[in-house]
Design a protein that fits this description.
By secondary structure, this protein is mainly alpha-helical. 39% of the residues lie in helices and 3% in strands. Helix 2 packs across helix 6.
Length: 263
């Protein structure tokens, strides 16, 4: 297996993280002492400068000036900010996962009854995904879908005294599992409660760190995929990332089908 996985990248500045201001709620059921967190363009610019002073605020498509789906500008900023955090978190998991699978690291138990880890020995990380059983892919996609539906539920958010990120709620927030009928020992976010005793300033600083790490992970993951598919496209990764002959933009092409299409 390979133990060397290096990446030299610069930070990007798609600035969709904002500081906050307080606004009143007129809802019949107040949330968090009748206040929610709203986001505006000026706060977005300030936080962008805090995230990356060298680049500052950079929004070439003027997305933060728009009103998506007929919503307010603040709702649009909330959506953009939440989307960036979510993509950053997925990219961080994907970046680590790429390194793990590229080096042949796997669970100590069988992935499926008819699956042998020897069949993926020496393959690149994307090729490992292509080779895993279809049932395993459905489990992964199903869990992601359930987590997405859970985090978007207004009832689940209200149980945590929270609001939707497009309705003044905290961008990037993932609710607890307190409403799950079956007892769940740990939450998805901060399962061990490390952030409970942090001050608001400490949480804000750590959130900025997370956003920057997510941006770097997005660039890093795409660099891995580019180097695997197009040798030489990322000079620093030559000889480090294994080549991949499949379709990186069609991750469900191999050994995967819907219930409507025969495999």
């Amino acid at each position: 297996t390979r133990s060397r996985m290096m990446l030299a990248l610069t930070t990007q500045a798609a600035a969709f993280s904002a500081a906050t201001k307080q606004i009143s709620l007129s809802a019949t059921k107040p949330i968090a002492a009748s206040t929610v967190v709203a986001m505006d363009k000026s706060a977005l610019v300030k936080t962008a400068e805090d995230l990356n002073p060298l680049v500052g605020y950079w929004d070439p498509l003027s997305l933060a000036d728009r009103e998506f789906w007929g919503q307010t500008n603040e709702a649009t900023i909330g959506f953009l900010r939440h989307a960036e955090m979510k993509h950053g978190r997925v990219a961080m998991a994907g970046f680590v996962g790429y390194i793990v699978h590229e080096n042949g690291i796997h669970w100590p138990w069988p992935l499926a009854a008819d699956f042998d880890y020897a069949s993926v020995e020496g393959l690149s990380a994307p090729a490992v995904w292509d080779a895993i059983p279809e049932a395993a892919k459905w489990q992964i996609i199903g869990f992601i879908g359930l987590a997405e539906a859970w985090s978007e539920s207004s009832n689940v958010l209200k149980a945590d005294s929270a609001a939707h990120y497009m309705r003044g709620g905290k961008a990037g927030y993932f609710p607890s599992f307190k409403l799950v009928p079956h007892p769940v020992p740990l939450n998805l976010f901060d399962p061990f409660g490390f952030t409970k005793k942090l001050t608001a300033e400490e949480k804000a600083r750590k959130l900025n760190i997370e956003v920057n790490n997510g941006r770097l992970a997005m660039l890093g993951l795409m660099s891995f995929l580019s180097a695997a598919k197009i040798p030489g496209s990322v000079p620093l990764l030559d000889g480090v990332v294994k080549p991949y002959a499949g379709e990186v933009m069609a991750p469900f092409e191999a050994n995967f089908h819907t219930f409507l299409i025969a495999s």
